[in-house]
Design goal:
The chain is α/β, with parallel strands linked by helices. The chain contains 15 helices and 14 strands. It has two domains: about 180 residues, Glycogen Phosphorylase B (Rossmann fold), CATH 3.40.50; about 170 residues, Rossmann fold (3-Layer(aba) Sandwich), CATH 3.40.50.2000. α4 runs parallel beside α5. The radius of gyration is 20 Å and the shape is globular.
Length: about 375
């Protein structure tokens, strides 16, 4: 079997890395296509994967339309040569377009409801759309739900074990309390019309959080001079370990908020629409993690978020509480990487079994 993976973001590398390994171990042939965004290529290098960069990241909205066409054409050329049986990726329109052009199925994964442009460019052309079971929308006859979150493809305890050396790498003393703050660039197409921490208010947020521990900042863009000393200095492959041991995660990154929650670290997300509505209220993952498990909280601005963060930090037993809640969540969810591997490998039989009311492979 030949499978083509399209990885457009560092998070996509994490999502598919275990599935790619599984396919390679089973003797299947894989092809990885990547976009040179952030640390995508660096992650692939560190994991020892062979890949081909076919497009660069365009930060401006007027450039993104050209980028779609450019990558479609390059991917079409590669696919015709590789001749995949299946193409897959996380809400990337290119596999859907090219799959349709070469007459091969594309399997699209997504967990975000409000990505209007990405959905419009992808859904009409893809063969099947796989989402977490808590996804709020019904996507129609192509929609397959799995009982988990995409981050459990790499953070499930069967897949991930925290590395305590991450603490020393980050310059932390033994037993030192610390908080991770995430700042994003707001340049992605799905960030249009959204906002997070108020402009030029990062320092005041850091000052408040520092009352409870050292503040380490993960940022997509350059930090102001007054915040440079807070920049995380840790090997990128150990970032999830650093998140695991943290006393709190707070910030604008939705993926990192979910990752922290699934690792058993209290997570507070800050993001809103232009109308001041917290985006978490429109996301099935966030609602379930808050309302069913109490692992993650979300707010439209940093003032409300800081109140919640302080209440968590002042509770000395919060990490134990989160571990207990995480254990309950894990009992109810599956190893998503195993589910993905089985679903892709046996497609279209796996899809047909799902719609027939049977279990696709070992997992539901």
């Amino acid at each position: 079997m030949k499978v083509l993976f399209d990885l457009e973001h560092p998070a996509h590398v994490h999502l598919f890395k275990n599935t790619i390994r599984s396919f390679e171990q089973k003797g299947h042939e894989t092809k990885i296509i990547a976009k040179n965004k952030d640390i995508t290529a660096d992650l692939l290098d560190r994991l020892g994967f062979e890949y081909e960069l076919v497009s660069k990241y365009y930060p401006k909205m007027y450039q993104k339309g050209y980028g779609v066409i450019e990558k479609d054409l390059k991917l079409l050329r590669i696919a015709r040569k590789f001749r995949p049986d299946v193409l897959t990726g996380l809400l990337t329109p290119h596999i859907a377009h090219v799959g349709r052009l070469i007459g091969k199925p594309s399997i699209t994964f997504t967990d975000t409801e409000e990505v209007k442009l990405g959905n419009m460019l992808t859904f009409p052309f893809t063969e099947v759309i796989c989402t977490p079971s808590c996804f709020l929308k019904d996507l129609g006859p192509k929609h397959v739900r799995f009982n988990g979150y995409k981050e459990l493809a790499y953070l499930h305890p069967d897949r991930f074990e925290p590395d305590p050396t991450a603490l020393e790498d980050a310059g932390l003393s033994k037993g030192e309390e610390y908080i991770i703050l995430r700042l994003i660039s707001w340049s992605a197409s799905h960030d249009v019309g959204l906002r997070g921490i108020g402009a030029d208010s990062e320092m005041s947020l850091v000052n408040e959080l520092e009352k409870y521990g050292r503040v380490l900042i993960s940022s997509e863009g350059p930090l102001p001079k007054e915040l440079e000393d807070h920049k995380i200095n840790c090997p990128r492959e150990k970032m999830h370990s650093l998140m695991h041991y943290a006393g709190l995660y707070i910030g604008e990154g939705g993926t990192m908020a979910t990752e922290s929650a699934l690792l058993g670290t209290p997570a507070v997300h800050i993001e809103s629409t232009s109308k001041g509505i917290a985006t978490g209220s429109m996301c099935g993952n966030f609602l379930e993690l808050r309302d069913r498990y109490g692992l993650l909280y979300f707010y439209p601005d940093q003032k409300q978020a800081l109140v919640k963060a302080v209440s968590i930090l002042e509770n000395k037993g919060s990490k134990y509480d989160w571990k207990t809640k995480r254990d309950r969540m894990l009992e109810e969810k599956v190893d998503v990487s195993s589910w993905m591997t089985d679903f892709i490998e046996r497609f279209p039989q796996s899809r047909d079994e799902y719609f027939a009311g049977k279990k696709p492979g070992r997992l539901t």
